[in-house]
């Protein structure tokens, strides 16, 4: 009987001793939970609890009996994480963050699953700290530092669209193109609200690294999901032309037209191929030797005519199609400008030829006029539309409308 009594007393003593040893740890846990519950609704009432939690966890961390418990590290990570989050001075908040991060790493190493909720909460706090830190660094133009901060945030929340987007943006602006590509590519797999823009952005990064193959694949993937996206289609055309793949992209569009002959966008895209090809010939024409100019001029003229045919078909389907009106005006202006410039290069002793050329240019300018005016009517804030119209007025030497259009352009938002 005495032995049994002694055993009960011994067990009671052991339990009481263990409880005493964990008293500071339990206080820290309890006070932190009070703080966490009050911090949003009543932050002033919450702060004393956080101060008590810090005092208690420091004692628990200094006690050899509790110093290496996973719970101690988990609570310490939460407490110091909260202190870092509240501290707006980077020189004093960062040491608190580092203390919290070290404690979190030890908690993860030692925990068997009993402190998962506390560990997850600490991770969220530290991720939020790094996110806020990254925003300040990004705004200060410290993109390399912002990338590291956002990447910490992203590693905690790998499926969070904001975390991935911020990391991608900071990587791009710090010219860390591989990381930018990785994160933009990840973002295309997530439910991002502006997914259509991602493919153009990602293609631009590939182009910045001179990887036209990667850029074209990205655009192709984007068009599978967003077949009517004009920016993607335009970029596809531009990249294809850079790679000398005019026939391939034109064949693709022509095949699409055969399957969907009432799709105005397809005719517009075909027009883009032809007008871009014409512009390319025009650029070559500037530096070409005299012997090669005629062939390039013929190529430019032929492609401008084909572009006009395609834009005309798009406008037959939708007369208010802004982009088609804009580009139709542009391709019709092109021969007028060529004729006008050629007239002005004639020697002074060829007055008759000059007058004939100017009359021809005036007629050509007037063919473009309805489309130029329509484009401005549809989008009066378009700099491209207004500049095309300005070119028309200059060709017609209409000084009153030149001044008026210049004023409209000057009034556009910068």
UniProtKB/TrEMBL annotation:
Cited InterPro entries: TPR-like_helical_dom_sf (IPR011990), TPR_rpt (IPR019734), Ycf3/AcsC/BcsC/TPR_MFPF (IPR051685)
Keyword list, A-Z: Repeat, Signal, TPR repeat
TPR repeat spans: 288-321
Pfam families, alphabetized: TPR_11, TPR_16
Gene3D superfamilies registered for this protein in UniProt: Tetratricopeptide repeat domain (1.25.40.10)
Coiled coil: none
SUPFAM superfamilies the UniProt entry points to: TPR-like
Signal peptide: 1-20
Record bears the keyword Cell cycle: no
Protein name according to UniProt: Tetratricopeptide repeat protein
Organism field: Mucilaginibacter phyllosphaerae
Taxonomic lineage from the root: Bacteria, Pseudomonadati, Bacteroidota, Sphingobacteriia, Sphingobacteriales
């Amino acid at each position: 009987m005495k032995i049994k009594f002694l055993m009960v007393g011994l067990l009671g003593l052991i339990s009481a001793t263990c409880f005493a040893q964990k008293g500071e740890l339990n206080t820290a846990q309890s006070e932190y939970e009070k703080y966490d519950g009050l911090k949003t609704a009543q932050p002033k009432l919450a702060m004393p609890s956080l101060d008590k939690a810090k005092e208690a966890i420091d004692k628990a961390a200094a006690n050899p009996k509790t110093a290496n418990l996973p719970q101690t590290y988990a609570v310490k990570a939460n407490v110091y994480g909260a202190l870092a989050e509240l501290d707006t001075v980077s020189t004093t908040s960062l040491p608190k963050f580092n203390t919290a991060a070290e404690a979190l790493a030890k908690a993860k190493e030692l925990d068997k699953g009993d402190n998962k909720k506390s560990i997850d909460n600490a991770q969220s706090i530290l991720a939020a700290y790094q996110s806020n830190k990254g925003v300040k660094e990004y705004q200060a133009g410290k993109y390399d530092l912002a990338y590291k901060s956002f990447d910490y945030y992203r590693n905690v929340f790998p499926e969070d669209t904001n975390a991935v987007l911020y990391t991608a943006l900071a990587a791009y602006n710090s010219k860390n193109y591989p990381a930018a590509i990785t994160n933009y590519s990840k973002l295309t797999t997530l439910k991002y609200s502006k997914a259509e823009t991602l493919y153009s952005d990602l293609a631009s990064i590939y182009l910045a690294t001179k990887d036209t193959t990667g850029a074209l694949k990205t655009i192709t993937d984007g068009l599978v999901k967003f077949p009517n996206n004009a920016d993607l289609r335009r970029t596809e055309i531009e990249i294809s032309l850079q790679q000398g793949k005019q026939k391939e992209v034109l064949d693709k569009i022509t095949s699409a037209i055969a399957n969907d002959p009432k799709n105005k966008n397809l005719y517009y895209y075909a027009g883009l191929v032809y007008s871009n090809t014409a512009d390319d010939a025009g650029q070559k024409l500037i530096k070409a030797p005299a012997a090669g100019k005629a062939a390039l001029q013929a190529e430019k003229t032929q492609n401008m005519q084909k572009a006009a045919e395609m834009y005309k078909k798009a406008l037959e389907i939708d007369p208010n199609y802004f982009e088609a009106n804009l580009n139709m005006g542009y391709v019709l202006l092109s021969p007028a400008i060529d004729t006008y410039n050629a007239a002005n290069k004639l020697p002074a002793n060829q007055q008759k030829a000059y007058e004939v050329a100017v009359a021809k240019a005036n007629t050509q300018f007037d063919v473009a006029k309805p489309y130029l005016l329509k484009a401005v009517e549809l989008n009066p804030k378009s700099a491209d539309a207004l500049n095309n119209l300005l070119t028309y007025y200059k060709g017609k030497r209409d000084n009153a409308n030149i001044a008026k259009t210049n004023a409209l352009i000057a009034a556009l938002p910068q």
